[in-house]
Amino acid sequence: MNTQNFKVNNDKSIVEWIGRKITGAHNGTIGIKEGSFTFKDNQLSSGTFVIDTRSIKILDIEDAETNAQFAGHLASDDFFNSDQYPESIFEIMHAEPGDNNLYYVNGDLTIKGITHPIDAVLKIETNQGSATLQSKIVLDRTKYNMKFRSGNFFTDLGDTLIYNNFDLTINLVADINNNSL
């Protein structure tokens, strides 16, 4: 059996996020702490990716003080509680190959110590010792105890309502890990 192990390059990998509210949206990035995935006989067989919740950045707010306040709020218990839960983890449980380098993946996503199964489509391209992985995932933040200004839990929010779903666009670059055996 031919096995290839890939290690995610943190410096070249990033997760982009978009959160929406009634009056608009905010966007930014979150860093990857570590990650790896394995191909057996040229088929994705497993993988784990760790997101550093302390690395959340807001890209659409230019005022430094407002940006810092917003970043602090995202790190608070209203959202990611980054002091207590500095990592969010996605673990691939099952992968089905599709056409054009696509994989239909079932995995477990853990945020704030709460784990839920999610389905995702990953596009993985390998090329002479390296690989890229791309995916877009839409998550319901309330499943992970992020209820701040959610219409599911609060009434009369008016234009302060924050929508439950947020988008993660995942862009990972990985290299063959020859030290994994």
Automatic annotation (TrEMBL):
InterPro entries: Lipid/polyisoprenoid-bd_YceI (IPR007372), TTHA0802/YceI-like_sf (IPR036761)
SMART domains assigned: YceI
Domain Lipid/polyisoprenoid-binding YceI-like: 5-175
SUPFAM superfamilies listed in its UniProt record: YceI-like
Pfam families noted in UniProt: YceI (PF04264)
Listed name of the protein: YceI family protein
